[in-house]
Write a structure and sequence with these properties.
The chain is an all-alpha fold. The chain contains six helices and no strands. The protein is rod-shaped and about 115 Å long.
């Protein structure tokens, strides 16, 4: 008689255990899906809020690159005296100030883009320094001429970085 009760008990318990395991697995799958959905919605909301900030950062860096383009820099900043060293320092100081003003934008743009922008800034400064070291450059106005002549012969470093920014922004869409 006792074996019959044990068998009856197993016959009632086995379907309950199977039902419980199925319910547990469905609950676990449902919880996982809900968690994924919440993460997706949170990421989507963050992208909606951060996209304008990222675009603004790219815009500011584009303005920075335009402002340090040698031809535009020379038009905007006139020499105070005829001393080429003073004018060189003034140009470099202006570039550095512009860069420091936009330093915080690096958190919104990619590391590669920031590296290219920094390289462009450094290349522009190097171009000014090299032009100042030439023997034919003896005054501030002559320095301006040499830099402008150099820019006519080749593409400015800012143009290269600006092209990269445009490419990166087009990838955001």
């Amino acid at each position: 008689m006792e074996t019959e009760k044990i068998i009856d008990l197993f016959l009632y318990t086995i379907p309950s255990l199977i039902t419980g395991l199925i319910a547990y697995s469905f609950f676990k799958i449902h919880t996982k899906n809900e968690d994924g959905r919440r993460r997706f919605l949170l990421k989507k909301d963050m992208q909606v809020n951060s996209l304008p900030l990222r675009l603004q950062a790219y815009e500011r860096m584009a303005i920075f690159l335009e402002r340090i383009t040698p031809s535009k820099l020379l038009i905007r900043i006139s020499p105070i005296s005829s001393n080429k060293t003073d004018y060189e320092a003034l140009l470099i100081q202006n570039i550095e100030q512009e860069f420091e003003h936009n330093l915080s934008q690096q958190i919104y743009i990619t590391d590669k883009c920031w590296s290219i922008i920094t390289a462009s800034k450094n290349a522009t400064i190097q171009l000014i320094r090299k032009a100042s070291l030439l023997e034919k450059t003896d005054t501030a106005n002559k320095l301006r001429e040499v830099i402008l002549t150099e820019m006519m012969e080749r593409r400015s470093p800012s143009d290269t970085a600006l092209s990269f920014i445009k490419e990166e922004v087009s990838d955001l869409w």
